[in-house]
Specification:
By secondary structure, the protein is an alpha/beta fold. It has two domains: about 250 residues, Rossmann fold (3-Layer(aba) Sandwich), CATH 3.40.50; about 70 residues, no CATH class. Helices cover about 35% and strands about 25% of the residues. It has an eight-stranded mixed β-sheet with strand order 1-2-4-3-5-6-9-10, with helices on both faces. It has a three-stranded antiparallel β-sheet with strand order 12-14-13. Strands 7-8 form a two-stranded antiparallel sheet.
């Protein structure tokens, strides 16, 4: 494993972080985004864990995101949208590295970093393989807009957990509805939340899970906002397992394999009467070329040859998510 400092310049400011990289080969990578008044160093343990298993990791400090931030800006200048810019700049940076598999960049965000991660994924859905949200602070806008219901109520400075926020933080949340801004991202999402969280109600994560097309949620009994050491260890192991699982699925169904199988099938005598069900939809089990879904009852995430055999065995097989017509390919 190699470790090296990272500095990313964007919008006239500098984001400082650290990369943890496997020794050789082209590898997937996870970007970690910390919570309010946190630090990239909060993720040293999982970053090294992942790198030891062949998965790169980048940790960084949001600009103005904490009292101990190594990045630019004062905390009074930070907003959730400036933090989103920071994350997108880091995403652009790591995708430019030749050793990083650009098709397999994952995002991990905790608390307010989870909110920022969710917003960033909506803007770059094709660049984010999957994301993991740890007790994401999806309540931020609702909480502060209740606290300051009118623009005139917003102070120039406000202290929270020993950190000073500026007027811009609150003004940029006016009219912001989180569930109108997230949920379109089509990739896999894993949400982790404790049922004893008194800062971010579990209901926010439950609503998010319903909005996303391909999300699962794990609820941790008796864990609050900030897990116990035992809970954290479980999170890091689940993160590792989740990334490996997504990588395995990617290996089973790569764009190159699908294209080769399509070409081979078109050259076969059976092609003339082969019919199958194609339609853009939200079935979690049957993505084709990322957005066009193929009936899983005749595809099975395998090859078109097998698809043909299965389809011939049951012409009436239909995906339960299927809502449109059958077309000839």
């Amino acid at each position: 494993m190699r470790e090296r400092d990272v500095a990313v310049l964007h919008h006239g400011r500098k984001v400082v972080g650290r990369a943890f990289l496997p020794e050789a080969g082209k590898f997937p990578l996870v970007i970690f985004s910390h919570g309010f008044n946190g630090s990239g160093d909060d993720f040293l343990v999982p970053a090294r864990l992942l790198a030891g298993r062949g998965i790169g990791a980048v940790i960084y400090d949001f600009c103005g995101g904490s009292l101990c931030s190594k990045s630019d800006l004062r905390s009074e200048e930070m907003t959730i949208f400036s933090e989103k810019e920071d994350l997108l700049a880091v995403l652009d940076e790591v995708r430019s590295w030749k050793t990083v598999d650009g098709k397999n960049v994952f995002l991990f965000g905790a608390s307010m970093g989870g909110l920022v991660t969710a917003l960033a994924a909506e803007e770059r859905p094709k660049q984010v393989r999957a994301m993991v949200l740890l007790y994401p602070a999806l309540c931020v806008a609702d909480d502060w807009n209740r606290r300051f219901p009118n623009t005139d109520d917003i102070p120039d400075r406000e202290e929270l957990w020993d950190m000073t926020l500026g007027r811009a933080f609150f003004e940029t949340l006016r009219g912001f509805s989180v569930f109108e801004r997230i949920g379109v991202y089509p990739g896999p999402v894993l949400i982790l939340h404790g049922d004893a969280d008194e800062v971010v109600p579990l209901a926010y994560s439950e609503t998010a899970q319903r909005l996303y097309h391909n999300a699962q949620m794990e609820v941790f009994p008796d864990e609050g906002h900030g897990f116990s050491p035992e809970g954290e260890e479980m999170v890091w192991q689940m993160l590792l397992g989740y990334v490996l699982e997504q990588m395995n699925e990617e290996k089973e169904l790569s764009d190159e394999t699908v294209e080769a199988d399509v070409d081979r099938m078109k050259d076969s005598d059976a092609y003339s009467d082969f019919r199958c069900t194609f339609i853009p939809h939200n079935c979690p089990n049957c993505y084709f070329n990322s957005r066009i879904a193929l009936n899983p009852d005749c595809y099975y995430n395998d090859s078109f040859d097998r698809a043909y055999r299965e389809l011939k065995g049951d012409r009436n097989a239909k995906c339960p998510y299927f809502k449109s017509k059958t077309i000839e390919i």
